[in-house]
Write a structure and sequence with these properties.
Distance between the termini of chain A: 8 Å
Strand content of chain A: under 5%
Pfam families (chain B): P-loop_SecA, SecA_DEAD, SecA_PP_bind, SecA_SW
CATH topology of the largest domain in chain A: Preprotein translocase SecY subunit
Number of domains of chain A: 2
Enzyme class (chain B): translocase
Catalytic activity (chain B): ATP + H2O + cellular proteinSide 1 = ADP + phosphate + cellular proteinSide 2
CATH superfamily of the largest domain in chain B: P-loop containing nucleotide triphosphate hydrolases
Structural class of chain B: alpha/beta
CATH architecture of the largest domain in chain A: Orthogonal Bundle
CATH architecture of the largest domain in chain B: 3-Layer(aba) Sandwich
Strand order of the largest sheet of chain A: 1-3
Helix content of chain A: 55-70%
CATH class of the largest domain in chain A: Mainly Alpha
Structural class of chain A: mainly alpha
InterPro entries (chain B): Helicase_ATP-bd, Helicase_C-like, P-loop_NTPase, SecA, SecA_Actinobact-type, SecA_CS, SecA_DEAD, SecA_motor_DEAD
EC number (chain B): 7.4.2.8
Number of strands of chain B: 26
Largest interface: A-B, 77 and 83 residues
Number of strands of chain A: 4
Oligomer: heterodimer
Radius of gyration of chain B: 29 Å
Number of helices of chain B: 29
Chain lengths: ~425, ~775
């Protein structure tokens, strides 16, 4: 591993790429701590200390590396860009003109990227306005009394919105720069950095509780990460033959021609779905207003409280459900089987067409069970240790659930990319 | 606001970069002084005798680099040599073209601007610097013609020149490649590289170290045909496509026993069809994995039966199947389908099977070009592919302005609703123009279309010459006359390329020329758009040479294959008039859109193929370097002595060290060649399924590299182990090892061919794209 890193750094253009990526990340982190003009930093700090809110804003805060609640110039993070690209992707299905562009190859894709950028700016303006409005009315930190924007005339507010929007544009540019000239996918990498940036702060909070606790948490976190890495790389490889071209020649592909199914085929999405859904009852209850009704008490005691057994089991079951659900909609076994049939491929011993799709379905459902259990366990595990991790916010805890899954996913992707670049230069790989 | 400014700045920056890199007209100011000096020196040089001229050119070889002064000298001498030898004084622009070629550029020069001469001057320029130049043409005929045509010029400049074609013997080849300048078709030069791969002694090699490649019709070679692999195969005793399977498949009915997809690129058995075939083959289970070659034979036969049509995709002549190259609309003599398919088509037509065997090695045109230290080229349409030349070859484009400005009139597209209406209107227009005596060149998309148009014209009382499936030399002669008074020529894409169409005919007088020019010059009509705007421009470019008048127009319809395939959603924006003509902008836009999609798809395929072949080319480089060491040194002997010291010592005792060195070389080379061809086959199989890796959110290309590198790592060691094993069993005579007796026979015969645009691969790529698109959606969702 270390020698692979050394050879990565010894290859001039790979070294340049890695250093370039690190430089962008450094600039990005510096920007994340610079408060926007007009924001009172001491007041923000004081409010941050006694924040006890939970939910979506917290999750956003995690994804922006803590920049959001500090109202820094990079407060919005990369979320506007991600949202924009999802929207544009969806629009290509709906708007014929977009569909045409998508088909036109490079030049059309370029135009779509341009649209994505404009939309990102629009979303950023919207989101920045929302956050500034909330901050101005003192809603951002729940019950914090200190004015975050002391001199809140309209001009100051506009300056903050403009600053944050500009920040988003720069982040977008950073992301593209990394993808283009650095290593890995820029957007995911920046997301990774955001989450990783929270580790020291959270770690310090745990360290305050005593050295032994800290050590236990560290060991525990390492175990989780190791097991995530292990499961993420797990695959079921179904052998496939393409008997199309060669007559009178033995098959050479051997064990290298297969259809891979991941143990965790769904990725992190089921966890995000489940946690957003769990947040809904709380949201409804708040919107209705506290009138002390029984169902509201139930929600407050069992659903919102993350260490209650109701919350944990509902969360767990939802994740299992969404894993199956998500795999069913994204992995179309019939389509796969049809495609293989069309191109002359088959699984030895299985007839093409229906039998193949049934077989794929069978394997998929078998492999999804451990996959979903794994996702559920990783996601709920931190809930059992809330006393240790403090503040009842498992989502905010960088060693828990979503965060670890994203970090490991991005980390593995990036390492793989470095490795493949190294391989092309005939170096020993990273994963050996 | 700041965000907008930032985005704006990025755009300005990238726009500026694009501007800087845009292939632009060459800066003539740079050459102004040089050209003046050339003109000034011209008179003096004219007084030299031929011998003195040659001596002056030879003196250039003394100089170390081609500095400004040497360039002037080269231009002056070249101009004078051309004037004496060809009675043509090269224009300034031809000299500029030659100088740009010497900078390693791809130059764009219009038809009739004298590319061949400019290329020859550049080749001579390289030669006097002591470099060896390969001038690559698109076919044997042009290679030979250009070499013979330019020979006197080269001779005056003291540069030796040779050419190779299909018929050349190894000795002729060796002699040709030993010349300063060698002309040859790209495929022929590539095949020689492959054949050199099989030599077991240094004396058999024909190629020298590759140095400079000067490519004629560079866009077509470097872009259109870059993904065509050149293949060398060796015969094996393995089974051929059996007629039995062909007979069974012949009885299958579409819809019931097999299905096709909409665009007719795939066919597959239904479960009923599969059962029927299994029964006919004697109750076997095709899909058990034990009968893969039977299944492969069935699939190939089905492909031949259901998807390939006689006289559209291939013709049968002299008991042989000849492919028709659809992009150029002519018979592709050197091309074959991937082995199984070729045999299946032969079985379908009940022909005697031609030899089939295993692929020993293959190299793509791109890989071939990559071997050269310096690459330059010339073409009539380079600008449109400037991006690709830069991306794939790191080549820059220079546009040489025409000697006289082009005055051809290009009319707007005439769009029709149906193909019949389009053709009716086209015929009417031809008849009308023909009555005035104006020469007409009709461009068609494929052979079938060219014949249809010709018969329609015959019905209308116009006799047309059809160019599609004849040999290059004949075509060239006919095309040269396409500019004669009242000539009507129907031609497929690029038939007779490389030949100038003079107004008034090839042997026409000045008066003939002026008579035709008065009628408006050559009128180029096209029967639809090609898959890329560049091909359209090539056809148009046949008219309007050297400032001649000319005209062009494209007749196309919304039912054209291009539109149906790439923009199936196209609908007319207005009601067609009674002739079916659509004059709205929407229809025209759909046509343009379809062409853009086609260009995009082709570029993607090219880029993808390139990405997949790059690593293999690298591995080939390593293997070849190793092979060269074995061939030229006693490496093999050393290795074997190390691997099996005892046996080696015994054998050296028994025979002589000299004989044993030869034996070691023979054995090692045999295993090396064998192992490499196995490696290629392995990679071929992996390539076919690698797109499935995207399902596990892996990048197929990276996974391909992982597999390929892992496999390659062991190869060298394996070769020496295998060689040591063979050493135990092989019988040794005074002439070396008797490999055949040890079961290590080399192929009894080898032959070379180009793989016809592989229908399987491009499909696999499309599948890959689809899989990748759905995965990407999932990923962004995360």
């Amino acid at each position: 591993m270390l020698s692979a890193f050394r050879s990565a750094l010894a290859t001039p253009d790979l070294r340049r790429k890695i250093l370039f990526t690190l430089m962008i990340i450094a600039i990005y982190r510096v920007g994340a701590t610079i408060p926007s003009p007009g924001v009172s930093y001491p007041n923000v700090k004081r409010c941050l200390e006694n924040v006890d809110d939970q939910g979506v804003v917290q999750l956003l805060n995690l994804f922006s590396g803590g920049a959001l609640l500090q109202l820094s110039v990079f407060a919005l993070g990369i979320m506007p860009y991600i949202t924009a690209s999802i929207i544009i992707q969806l629009l290509t299905v709906v708007i014929p003109r977009f569909e045409q562009l998508k088909k036109e190859g490079q030049s059309g894709q370029g135009k779509l990227t341009q649209f994505t950028r404009y939309l990102t700016i629009a979303l950023a303006i919207l989101q920045a306005t929302g956050i500034v409005a909330m901050a101005d009315r003192g809603q951002l930190f729940g019950n914090c009394q200190d004015p975050i924007i002391p001199n809140s005339n309209i001009f100051t507010l506009i300056v903050i919105v403009v600053t944050m929007t500009a920040g988003t544009a720069i982040i977008m540019w950073f992301g593209e720069l990394i993808t283009e000239r650095g290593i890995g996918n820029g957007m995911s990498l920046l997301m990774f950095i955001n989450i990783a940036a929270r580790i020291p702060a959270e770690g310090a909070a745990i360290l305050d509780k005593g050295g032994v606790t800290f050590a236990v948490v560290c060991v525990f976190a390492l175990l989780i990460i190791a097991s995530v890495v292990f499961v993420e790389q797990g695959q079921r490889r179904i052998p496939v033959q393409y008997a199309k071209r060669m007559i009178g020649r033995r098959m050479y592909g051997g064990t290298s021609t297969y259809l891979p199914l991941k143990v965790n085929q769904a990725g992190v999405i089921p966890v995000i779905f489940a946690s957003s859904l769990l947040y809904l009852p709380d949201l409804i209850s708040r919107l209705v207003g506290a009138d002390g009704a029984g169902w509201q008490n139930f929600i407050a005691n069992y659903i919102v409280k993350q260490d209650s057994w109701v919350h944990i089991s509902v969360y767990f079951l939802l994740i299992i459900f969404f894993t199956y659900f998500y795999i069913t909609i994204t992995f179309n076994v019939n389509e796969r089987a049809d495609e293989m049939k069309k191109f002359g491929g088959f699984i030895p011993g299985i007839r093409p067409g229906r039998p193949t799709s049934e077989y794929l379905q069978f394997v998929l459902s078998r492999i999804t069970l451990p996959g979903s259990l794994y996702l559920g366990i990783i996601a709920v595990l931190p809930n059992f240790f809330l006393e240790v991790t403090d503040s009842g916010q498992n989502q905010n805890f960088p060693f828990g659930g979503t965060a670890v899954l994203i970090m490991v996913g991005v980390g593995l992707d990036t390492v793989k990319q470095i490795e493949s670049q190294l391989m092309q230069r005939n170096y020993e790989g990273f994963l050996k | 606001m700041a965000g907008v400014v930032a985005a704006f700045l990025t755009r300005v920056k990238s726009g500026f970069q694009r501007l800087l890199e845009r292939p632009s007209t060459v800066d003539l100011k740079k050459y102004k002084d040089l050209l003046t000096s050339v003109r000034w020196r011209e008179e003096k040089v004219a007084e030299l005798s031929d011998e003195e001229l040659t001596a002056a050119a030879t003196a250039l070889r003394e100089r170390k680099a081609l500095d400004q002064q040497a360039q002037v000298e080269l231009c002056v001498l070249g101009r004078e040599a051309a004037r004496r030898a060809l009675e043509q004084r090269p224009y300034d622009m031809q000299l500029v073209g030659a100088l740009e070629l010497l900078q390693g550029r791809v130059v764009e020069m219009g038809t009739g601007e004298g590319k061949t001469l400019a290329g020859a001057l550049a080749a001579a320029g390289y030669a006097v610097q002591g470099r060896s130049v390969h001038v690559m043409s698109v076919n044997d005929y042009l290679a030979r013609r250009d070499a013979e045509w330019m020979r006197p010029v080269y001779e005056l400049l003291g540069v030796s020149v040779g050419w190779v074609d299909q018929e050349s013997s190894p000795e002729e080849r060796r002699a040709a490649y030993a010349c300063d300048v060698t002309y040859g078709a790209v495929s022929e030069i590539g095949f020689d590289v492959l054949r050199d791969r099989l030599c077991t002694s240094v004396a058999d090699l024909v190629h020298r170290e590759p140095d400079v490649a000067l490519i004629d019709e560079a866009d077509s070679v470097l872009v259109d045909e870059a993904r065509v692999p050149l293949v060398m195969a060796g015969s094996t005793d393995d089974a051929q496509a059996d007629p039995e399977v062909a007979a069974i498949v012949r009885t299958l009915r579409p819809g019931q026993h097999y299905e096709r997809d909409e665009d007719n690129r795939n066919a597959w058995l239904t479960s009923r069809g599969a059962k029927l075939v299994e029964k006919a083959l004697g109750d076997i289970d095709l899909y058990s994995g034990d009968h893969s070659d039977r299944l492969a034979a069935v699939n190939a036969a089905l492909h031949a039966q259901a998807l390939l049509t006689r006289d559209v995709d291939y013709i049968v002549r002299d008991g042989k199947v000849h492919l028709i190259n659809t992009s150029r609309g002519r018979i592709a003599l050197l091309q074959r389908w991937p082995d199984g398919l070729q045999a299946a088509v032969e079985a379908k037509e009940r022909l005697k099977p031609t030899e089939s065997g295993e692929v020993l090695d293959s190299i793509s045109v791109q890989g071939l070009i990559g071997r050269y230290r310096r690459v330059c080229g010339m073409t009539g349409t380079a600008q449109a592919v400037a991006e690709q030349l830069r991306e794939f070859y790191d080549l820059k484009v220079s546009v040489i302005p025409p000697n006289k400005p082009c005055v051809r009139v290009d009319a707007a597209d005439r769009v029709f609703a149906t193909v019949e209406q389009k053709e009716a209107a086209l015929i009417a227009e031809i008849v009308e123009a023909h009555e005035t005596g104006r020469p007409i060149l009709v461009g068609t998309l494929d052979v079938a279309e060219s014949e249809r148009i010709a018969s329609l014209l015959a019905e209308a009382g116009v006799t047309a010459v059809v160019l599609n499936a004849k040999n290059d030399a004949e075509e060239a002669a006919i095309v040269a006359d396409a500019g004669a008074h009242a000539a009507v020529t129907v031609s497929t894409q690029m038939a007779g390329r490389g030949t100038d169409i003079r107004l008034g005919g090839a042997g026409g007088s000045e008066a003939d020329h002026d008579k035709v020019a008065e009628l408006g010059g050559l009128y180029v009509m096209s029967c639809g758009h090609y898959g890329s705007s560049r091909l359209d421009n090539q056809l148009r470019g046949r008219s309007g040479r050297q400032g001649d008048p000319g005209g062009s127009v494209v007749y196309c319809s919304l039912a054209d294959e291009l539109v149906v395939q790439f923009a199936p959603e196209a609908t007319a924006g207005s009601e067609p008039d009674e002739d079916g003509r659509l004059e709205d902008s929407t229809s025209a836009r759909f046509i343009e859109h379809a062409q853009k999609v086609a260009e995009g798809v082709n570029l993607d395929i090219h880029r993808n193929t390139w990405r997949y072949t790059r690593l293999v080319e690298r591995q080939r480089g390593l293997v070849l370097a190793y092979r060269d060491d074995v061939l030229r040194t006693d490496l093999a002997a050393k290795q074997l002595a190390e691997q099996a010291p005892q046996r080696w010592a015994e054998l050296v005792e028994e025979h002589t060290a000299e004989v044993m060195e030869k034996v070691a070389r023979q054995i090692t080379l045999h295993h090396l060649d064998q192992r490499w061809s196995q490696h290629l086959a392995f990679l071929g199989d992996v390539r076919e399924t690698i797109h499935l890796r995207a399902l596990a959110r892996e990048t197929p290309i990276d996974e391909f590299h992982r597999v390929a590198i892992g496999e390659f790592r062991g190869i060298m060691k394996e070769i020496s182990t295998l060689a040591a094993e063979s050493l135990e069993s092989v019988a040794i005579t005074e002439d070396g090892a008797d490999l055949a007796a040890a079961g290590l026979s080399r192929p009894t015969s080898t032959w070379t061919y180009m793989v016809h645009d592989n229908p399987f691969d491009s499909e696999a790529e499309q599948a890959l794209q689809r899989v990748r698109a759905s995965i990407r959606k999932v990923k962004t969702g995360r």
